[in-house]
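step 4 of 6: structure.
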Amino acid sequence: MVDTQRDPTRPGSPAGQQHDAPAQPLAIPEADDFWQGAQRGELRLQRCSVCKHAYFPPRPFCPACSSRAVESFTATGRATLYSFIISHVPTPGHTPPYSIAVVELEEGPRMMTNIVGCPQTSKALALDMPLQVVFRERGGATVPLFEPARSAP
Amino acid sequence: MIANKIAIVGAAESTRMGRVPELGQVALHADAALNALADCELSPADIDGLATAGHDPAEIAHYLGLEPVWTDGTSVGGCSFITHVRHAAAAIEAGLCRTVLITHGESGRSGHRTHRPIFPSQFSLQFEVPFGATVPATKFTLPAMRFMKDCNVSEEQLAMVAVVQREWAAMHPRATARDPVTVDQVLASRMVAYPFRKLMCCLVSDGGGALVLAAADRADDFPARPVYIRGTGEAVESPAITWMEDFTSCRAFRASGAAAFAEAGISHRDVDHLMIYDAFAHLPLYGLQDLGFVERGEAGAFVAEGHTRPGGRLPMNTNGGGLSYMHSGMYGMYALQEGVRQMRGTSPAQIVGAEVSVVHGVGGMFSAAATVVLSNVA
């Protein structure tokens, strides 16, 4: 595992920098549907069959009502920008400066991503701007990224 | 209710802080522990309770030669030691042990250690790390833009947090960064993760700290002025920043703070001195609002107007905080130490006449919180 807490203020500090490959998502069985969906270009979420709560990350029960009657579904991929930073921290697989964002999906859940398809500046990245999911290959995994929506959702 | 029944009777930091390349992490625990025992004129044989974070209590107990009958290894991040104060007070009150040692040591700068102190979150390793959010500077900072927009905080006001804390650090001989800085200098310092510049991010240090707790009715047995534990709170929220419930307010802060104030039976007007854990410059602003010292949307202006600086009506982070004093990684112990110094009347930045100190810490990336109300009045 990469050292996830090395000194943030010293670029090029050695831990986690032994190679340029981006970190791969930890494999957990409950998340297989999400990552396999991403390979097909689908953003997979889960919804409770009882209380209809849509949620993420995946769990084999509803975090709102604890029911085990849950199903997966494909989200619209529409989202808005909830918050972001523009990272200047050297990180394998990423070229600073690059955005790290939390987006709010149309279905309700939030997820972390990178905003692509626009300048990585505080002018181009406006809170609450509409976004659309795109899928990109990143070192062996297909990851959901978001870009500014081309037309109003 | 444990209000005022338990006291902190011994307290000390490690002999040296900042860069301590000659000591490993466990030895930093021990150095601080021996200093705290000397402070209250006890020996390891007098200790029957041990709490620590980041290491197995057995490792610390064995290293120091302790045989505790009560241990607490709660490890929820940097506020763990504040949580330990709460747990230790309850354990002493329940009769499970009589004299508790709480230890912290961290080789944050020199890296002489076997592992990182915080448990990694499976959600973070699955759904954050692939997007480049691998260090606190790229995780803890994420809610700030939403907070600043919804709570009226400018970049200049965020910079003022660092400016004011440097004023406090200038009074502390042991503070790492003591030279004055201006808002312009903070904003011109190297960009780490917009909107955070280097001077808005904590130091990275080696160091340690330890506390000794006992029943308040034994306080006369010890040389230092007792510091009473008047109220405590703790809470946990989400294991990773993405799932913090509301980026403009930390639920764990609100719950922990409210519990501590309720148990202490105090109002905000009673607070003479405040410590709010500051790994990054936005944290004290959340703390001021979520603990109820100011209304939502007022924290940025409150700091910018000088109310928390030397001479202000709410002295906050009077050691200079994680931004200027030191930050080993789990800073909560150092916030406690300054709270104890203020209640003993021994801080280099002493608030004259202070009787109530609130120490509030965060764990992980807004993942946990703990709060303690300290007082020198029984």
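step 5 of 6: annotate
 - Chain B has two domains: 6-115+205-227, 125-203+231-375.
 - DSSP finds 13 helices and eleven strands in chain B.
step 6 of 6: archive
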